[in-house]
C-alpha cells in the first residue's frame, strides 16, 4: 500500500507526525509529508491511527 498526503487538503495540524513520527513529518511550511522511503508503510498500525486522526482526511493509503 502506498501512502500519500493531499497537499491541497492538508491544513498542517500535525496529527500525522504525532501519531506516526517514524513515517510522517512536517515540511518547512508546517504541512504533513511522508518521510522518504516510507511511502509503503501503510500497514503499520500507527499509520492507520494517523489516517484516522487527520482532521481533514488528507492522508490516503492506496493499493499498489
UniProtKB/TrEMBL annotation:
Its cofactor is [3Fe-4S] cluster. Keywords: 3Fe-4S, Electron transport, Iron, Iron-sulfur, Metal-binding, Transport. Pfam families: Fer4_15 (PF13459). Residues 1-29 form the 4Fe-4S ferredoxin-type domain. PROSITE patterns: 4FE4S_FER_2. GO terms for molecular function: 3 iron, 4 sulfur cluster binding; electron transfer activity; iron ion binding. Transmembrane segments: none annotated. Ferredoxins are iron-sulfur proteins that transfer electrons in a wide variety of metabolic reactions. This is Ferredoxin.
Amino acid at each position: 500500500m502506498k501512502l500519500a498526503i493531499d497537499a491541497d487538503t492538508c491544513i498542517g495540524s500535525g496529527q500525522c507526525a504525532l501519531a506516526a513520527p517514524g513515517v510522517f513529518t512536517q515540511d518547512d511550511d508546517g504541512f504533513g509529508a511522508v518521510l522518504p522511503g516510507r511511502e509503503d508503510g501503510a500497514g503499520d498500525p500507527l499509520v492507520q491511527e494517523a489516517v484516522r486522526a487527520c482532521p481533514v482526511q488528507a492522508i490516503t493509503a492506496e493499493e499498489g
